[in-house]
């Protein structure tokens, strides 16, 4: 069975589904909670952050409730198949992981602070799973949009690993890679703001319980410090 082959490894481009030149579906124009444009145009000065942290339904809610975030949308990223469908991503044959795209105002919230939310809201040590959700599409990932984002993400991973290790937890498996050549493909409309449309819906993400203090204090990389230090 092909799916079984790729439950625990990402397929190579040659092994992945070929996809299609255009998406098979349309995406709503507006965010159901924030009222903002999902795919733009975005106001000048805003920045984009992409995070994979398990099932994207709960991941998106983490960020649309965060002050300074202008809009959020969910999609697929990090794989080889252009314009995949949800069913294809779940097969493991695209190489994509489920991602939330966060469009934020850096004058109101820093990329560091978004990373704090990212690390604390899921367990980044689980490899190709998140909780009871298993498969490569649930892997932890950060896809960066600048050299500054990449440096900040790498430093924050180092800082959080120190806290996890001191708490007796394992190694972070999060992949940190440039978004260049890793296009973001918006997911189907019913996935967008799913937990707003379905308040009692499934949310499979959960953190380790290990916290980081707010950016800006202490001497750890990028100003992110272990809680209580």
TrEMBL record:
SUPFAM superfamilies: Peptide methionine sulfoxide reductase. InterPro entries: Met_Sox_Rdtase_MsrA_dom, Met_Sox_Rdtase_MsrA_sf, MsrA_MetSO_reductase. The keyword NAD does not apply. PANTHER family: MITOCHONDRIAL PEPTIDE METHIONINE SULFOXIDE REDUCTASE. Belongs to the MsrA Met sulfoxide reductase family. Has an important function as a repair enzyme for proteins that have been inactivated by oxidation. Catalyzes the reversible oxidation-reduction of methionine sulfoxide in proteins to methionine. This is Peptide methionine sulfoxide reductase MsrA. It comes from Streptomyces spirodelae. The gene is msrA.
């Amino acid at each position: 069975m092909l799916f079984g082959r790729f439950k625990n490894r990402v397929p190579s481009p040659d092994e992945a589904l070929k996809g299609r030149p255009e998406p098979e579906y349309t995406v709503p124009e507006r965010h159901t909670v924030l009222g903002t444009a999902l795919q733009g145009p975005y106001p000048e000065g805003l920045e984009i952050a992409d995070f994979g942290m398990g099932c994207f339904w709960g991941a998106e809610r983490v960020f649309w409730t965060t002050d300074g975030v202008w809009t959020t949308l969910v999609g697929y990223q990090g794989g080889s198949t252009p314009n995949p469908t949800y069913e294809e991503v779940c097969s493991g044959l695209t190489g994509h992981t489920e991602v939330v795209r966060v469009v934020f105002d850096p004058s109101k919230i820093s990329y560091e602070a978004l990373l704090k939310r990212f690390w604390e809201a899921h367990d980044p040590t689980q490899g190709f799973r998140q909780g009871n959700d298993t498969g490569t599409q649930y892997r932890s990932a950060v896809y960066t949009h600048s050299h500054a984002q990449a440096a900040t993400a790498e430093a924050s991973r180092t800082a959080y690993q120190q806290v996890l290790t001191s708490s007796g937890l394992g190694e972070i498996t999060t992949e940190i890679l440039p978004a260049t050549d890793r296009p973001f493909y918006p997911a189907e409309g019913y996935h967008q703001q799913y937990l707003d449309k379905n308040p009692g819906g499934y949310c499979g993400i959960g953190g380790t319980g290990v916290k980081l203090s707010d950016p800006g204090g202490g001497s750890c990389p990028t100003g992110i410090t272990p809680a209580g230090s």
